[in-house]
Write a structure and sequence with these properties.
- Strands 2, 3, 6, 7, 8 and 9 form a 6-stranded antiparallel β-sheet that branches. A 3-stranded antiparallel β-sheet has the order 1-5-4, with no helix packed on it. It has a two-stranded antiparallel sheet with strand order 10-11.
- It has 1 helix and 11 strands.
- The mean pLDDT is about 85.
- With about 140 residues, it is an all-beta fold.
Length: about 140
């Protein structure tokens, strides 16, 4: 990601014949159609797009018209029914909905219980809102 909100995508695939930048919905909302990356002498394919508007983008690569894959150099993944896709965030001037804020947070409790039907131990996650454990807020019993 560059300071001017342009993004350069790179993929090392020296034996590939063509590589496309894909993403649905993700990056395709900005670039409108899959775009080909250009192959360098070192086997690294690259493409720069943008500037992109602040937001959340998902993308992946299509190699030789068949293999579709997330970016192996990007550890940030979004798991979908049809497979993983890579993601990145272009920051804006204001806080994004996914940014952490200094607000009261609740607690997630993890408990184990016996499941007679499955004949095994199972886990259950219980969320309690802020202040629930201290009794400072009048809240319904969960």
């Amino acid at each position: 990601m560059h300071a001017d909100r342009k993004v350069t995508f790179r993929l090392f695939a020296p034996k590939a014949n063509d590589v496309l930048l894909m993403g649905s919905p993700g990056i395709l909302e900005a670039i409108k159609k899959p775009l080909p990356l250009e192959k360098g002498d070192n086997g690294v394919w690259s493409l720069t797009v943008g500037p992109l508007a602040p937001g959340f983008y998902t993308y992946g690569f299509a190699i030789d018209g068949g293999l579709r894959m997330p970016d192996p150099s990007n550890p940030n993944l979004e798991l979908r029914r049809w497979g993983a896709t890579s993601l990145f965030l272009i920051p804006g001037m204001n806080e994004a909905p996914i940014d952490e804020r200094k607000v009261p947070h609740g607690t997630v409790h993890v408990h184990s219980y016996d499941s007679p039907n499955l004949n095994t131990q199972r886990m259950v996650y219980v969320y309690t809102p802020p202040g629930y454990e201290t009794g400072k807020q009048k809240l319904p019993v969960l």
